[in-house]
Every structure is written in structure tokens, then in C-alpha cells.
């Protein structure tokens, strides 16, 4: 009798982002640039906090904002496959010119640039999340980056009209995020049916929230406006703050679900792009002079809590619709979710 050939186990090819290749593609091939980048951010953060407390001269805010803006520009360029030295140096040079000339238009433009760069970087710095707890971690990373950027944005002391500043930074951040995601997601043909539906629903929800807010602000009836403002006032008086609707209803859920989906399908990047609707309101939260630092921080925290709760429900619905029900099937699905992506400190492109 002839013996049957032994069965061979399928071996998954190694990821292009693992092992020596991963180390080689890390910024500059060494950890030194990352260490220096962290030192720059901490230095800028220290100057901003010292000027805000204050424990030092008021002019600390300007150099701190320039330092953070330069470090964030460097990181965003490195993460998106650009030239970090060129863009980081350019951001610092423009920041120095802004401080030296000390004109309102230049300070406002620098604040807009810092806010937009911060918002896009906060989303691009995330990595795929196999489980929901990992998605929570990625949302916290994005919030932390956006929070530091918020201090840098207000450190330029812009002279603004609040609504225009918020709309301008949100629009530019969305354009920048979708421009990068277009390359990461292999263009529009990489969306697929699920991705197209997700982008359309997300865009419609975002447009509805912005349109409703603007119509209510301009043409809302006094009774309706008063009733809604009463709820905001009650929340601010009893809870200390009121969450930003666009952050809680769109941005954080999109970022959590997008990171979760990226571990399985590349269409998750298109969902993550809507995460700038969370990072942008955080990055420009301090430019509103009527809101204190403590209230702004509480508003962000409440928005993250509400958004993560919504994101958890959306992720569970997504898993249920794809046939992964029950704890055992969920664990099997998580074990198979291994779509490769570069690490957090490596270029995406």
C-alpha cells in the first residue's frame, strides 16, 4: 500500500511590516528621531502650560506653539510618506516669522494650520484595533494628540470669528484626511459596496448635524432654541460641561469603528477619515473665550464617553450583520483579523 502524502499546513506569508523590514522603515531606521520628536513636543507643551498657569512670562506661549506645530508637521509628513525634515522646518520657519511680525492675520493663519495638522495627525497616528478595547486605546491616543494641539492652536493667540474658524478648520481637516485616505484605500474603486454606503451615511449624518446647528442658530424659533439651551445650561451647571454633538455622534464612533474595521478591511480607512470630526473640535476647543479650560476638558471627556458607547453598539451590529455571533465565534473572528499595516511610528505610504 502506498502511503498518503503528509498534509501540509498553510503558512501565512510574513507581513511586509514585521521583523527587519519594520525596523528599516521606522523613521530614519532608528529610534533617535522618535525620542527627539517626543522631547520637542514635551518642550513645547511645557512652555504652553507655563504660559497658561502662569509660572513664566506670557511670551512662552508663542515658542511653545511653534515647537508643537513644527513637531506635528514633521510627524504628519513622516506618517504620510512625505519629507518630514522639509515640512517640519517649514512649519517652524513660518511660526517664527509669525511671532516676529506679530500680525493678527498671520497669527490666525498659523492657528488654522496648527489645528488642521493636529486634526489629521490624530487620525493618521492610529493603528488597527482587533478588539473594542484596542479601539478605545486608539481613540484616547487621538484625543491626547488633539489636546496638545489645542494648546498650540490657542498659543498663537488668533483673532477670529468663532463659527468661521470652526468651519474652516473642519473643512480643511476633512479635505486633508480624505486626500490621504484616498491613497491609502486604493482610490474610490477600493471602497466596495459597504464602503460606499458607509461614506454616504457618514457624510449625510455630518451634513445633517452641521445644517441643523446652523439653521437653529440663525432661524430657530425662540421657544425651541430656549428649550435646547436650557438643556445645555443644565448640563453645564450640574455636570460641568456639555459634550460637542459632532464629536460624540460622529467623530469618536467613526474613529472607533474605523480602527476596528481596519484590522479586517481596508475600507476602514474611509470610516476613520470621519474621525477628524472629533479631533478638530478638540483641537479648536480652547479658542472659544467663553469656555474655561476645565469646562473644555470635561466636554471632551463626555464626548469621548458617549461616542465610545455609540461606537461599541455600531461595532457589535457590524459583527452581527457579518455573521459573527456569540463569544466563541467572536474570538475566532478576532484571531483571524490580521490585516497588515505599518506600526504607529512607520510611514503609511
Backbone shape: globular
Strand content: under 5%
Report helical residue fraction: over 70%
Distance between the termini: 55 Å
Report the mean per-residue pLDDT as an integer.
81
Helix run count: 14
Biggest sheet overview: none
Structural class: mainly alpha
Helix and strand pattern: HHHHHHHHHHHHHH
DSSP strand count: 0
Give start-end ranges of low-pLDDT stretches: 1-28
- Structurally, how many domains make up the residues? 1
Gyration radius, rounded: 22 Å
Q: What key phrases describe this protein's structure?
A:
349 residues; mainly alpha; 14 helices; globular
SSE inventory with pairings:
Layout: H1 20-25, H2 32-52, H3 61-79, H4 84-101, H5 104-124, H6 132-155, H7 162-184, H8 192-219, H9 222-238, H10 245-262, H11 268-272, H12 276-283, H13 293-321, H14 327-336
Helix pairs in contact: 2-3, 2-6, 3-4, 3-5, 3-6, 5-6, 5-7, 5-12, 6-10, 6-12, 6-13, 7-12, 8-10, 10-12, 10-13
Detailed description of the structure:
This protein is mostly helical and 349 residues long. It has one domain (22-336). The chain has 14 helices and no strands. It has helices spanning 20-25, 32-52, 61-79, 84-101, 104-124, 132-155, 162-184, 192-219, 222-238, 245-262, 268-272, 276-283, 293-321, 327-336. The longest helix is centred in the C-terminal third of the chain and has 29 residues, at 293-321. The chain is globular, with a radius of gyration of 22 Å. The model is unreliable at 1-28 (pLDDT under 50).
Amino acid at each position: 500500500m502506498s502511503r498518503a502524502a503528509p498534509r501540509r499546513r498553510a503558512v501565512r506569508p510574513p507581513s511586509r511590516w514585521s521583523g527587519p523590514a519594520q525596523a528599516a522603515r521606522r523613521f530614519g531606521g532608528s529610534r533617535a528621531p522618535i525620542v527627539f520628536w517626543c522631547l520637542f513636543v514635551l518642550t513645547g507643551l511645557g512652555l504652553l502650560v507655563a504660559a497658561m498657569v502662569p509660572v513664566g512670562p506670557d511670551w512662552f506661549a508663542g515658542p511653545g506653539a511653534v515647537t508643537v506645530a513644527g513637531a506635528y508637521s514633521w510627524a504628519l509628513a513622516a506618517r504620510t510618506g512625505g519629507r518630514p525634515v522639509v515640512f517640519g522646518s517649514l512649519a517652524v520657519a513660518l511660526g517664527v516669522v509669525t511671532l516676529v511680525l506679530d500680525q493678527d492675520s498671520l497669527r490666525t493663519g498659523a492657528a488654522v494650520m496648527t489645528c488642521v495638522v493636529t486634526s489629521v495627525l490624530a487620525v493618521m497616528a492610529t493603528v488597527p484595533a482587533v478588539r473594542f478595547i484596542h479601539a478605545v486605546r486608539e481613540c484616547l491616543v487621538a484625543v491626547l494628540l488633539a489636546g496638545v494641539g489645542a494648546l498650540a492652536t490657542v498659543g498663537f493667540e488668533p483673532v477670529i470669528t468663532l463659527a468661521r474658524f470652526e468651519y474652516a478648520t473642519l473643512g480643511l481637516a476633512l479635505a486633508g484626511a480624505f486626500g490621504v485616505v484616498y491613497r491609502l484605500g486604493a482610490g474610490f474603486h477600493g471602497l466596495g459596496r459597504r464602503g460606499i454606503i458607509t461614506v454616504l451615511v457618514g457624510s449625510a449624518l455630518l451634513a445633517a448635524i452641521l445644517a441643523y446647528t446652523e439653521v437653529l442658530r440663525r432661524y430657530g424659533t425662540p421657544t425651541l432654541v430656549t428649550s435646547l439651551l436650557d438643556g445645555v445650561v443644565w448640563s453645564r451647571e450640574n455636570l460641568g460641561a456639555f459634550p460637542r454633538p459632532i464629536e460624540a455622534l460622529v467623530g469618536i464612533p467613526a474613529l472607533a469603528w474605523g480602527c476596528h474595521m481596519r484590522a479586517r478591511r481596508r475600507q476602514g480607512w474611509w470610516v476613520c477619515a470621519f474621525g477628524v470630526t472629533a479631533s478638530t473640535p478638540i483641537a479648536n476647543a480652547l479658542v472659544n473665550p467663553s469656555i474655561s479650560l476645565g469646562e473644555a476638558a470635561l466636554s471632551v471627556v463626555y464626548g469621548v464617553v458617549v461616542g465610545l458607547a455609540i461606537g461599541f453598539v455600531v461595532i457589535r451590529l457590524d459583527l452581527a450583520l457579518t455573521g459573527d455571533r456569540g463569544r466563541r465565534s467572536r474570538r475566532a473572528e478576532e484571531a483571524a483579523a490580521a490585516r497588515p499595516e505599518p506600526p504607529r511610528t512607520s510611514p503609511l505610504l
